[in-house]
Design goal:
Layout: E1 3-8, E2 12-17, E3 22-26, H1 31-35, H2 38-41, E4 45-46, E5 50-53, E6 58-61, H3 74-81, H4 87-94, H5 98-106, H6 113-131
Antiparallel strand pairs: 1-2, 2-3, 4-5, 5-6
Helix pairs in contact: 4-5
Length: about 130
């Protein structure tokens, strides 16, 4: 697949391929693009296998537009939108490897349903503990 056209809204980057099919990806995967101005987003080039924004130091492969996980899971969304959470310390507090949790968050590895539920339960537990202070 080769993307021939792209456009944005506040939450997504959209692409249209050579056959006219449309795709979208969450901008949560690309924080520099999410924060970029329209002018910065417009300064891209199409390469052999993707799109490059030199001034933003950002690349998106054509292939990624067809990924099944174009939308982050609830667990991924939590961490991608809460940069104030120390992922390494969160992982240690629940007894999992911090690198593994980062891989889950960034989509490099997919947690089992049981593991994702465990992570979400830990998020809720910490949230409840924080609410107890109010």
């Amino acid at each position: 697949m080769i993307i021939k056209e792209i456009w944005f809204d506040t939450q997504y980057i959209y692409g249209r391929d050579e056959d006219g099919r449309e795709y979208r990806q969450s901008l949560l995967w690309y924080p520099r693009l999410k924060k970029a101005t329209d002018e910065e987003r417009a300064q891209y080039v199409f390469g052999y296998d993707g799109i490059h924004w030199r001034n933003l130091d950002e690349d998106i492969s054509f292939e990624s537009f067809a990924y099944e996980d174009a939308e982050p899971s609830a667990m991924q969304r939590f961490f991608l939108t809460h940069n104030e959470i120390n992922v390494a310390e969160f992982a240690r507090s629940m007894g999992i490897n911090p690198t593994l949790l980062r891989n889950y968050i960034n989509g490099f590895k997919k947690p089992s349903q049981e593991r994702e539920k465990e992570i979400m339960n830990h998020i809720h537990k910490i949230g409840a503990e924080m609410m107890a202070f109010s």
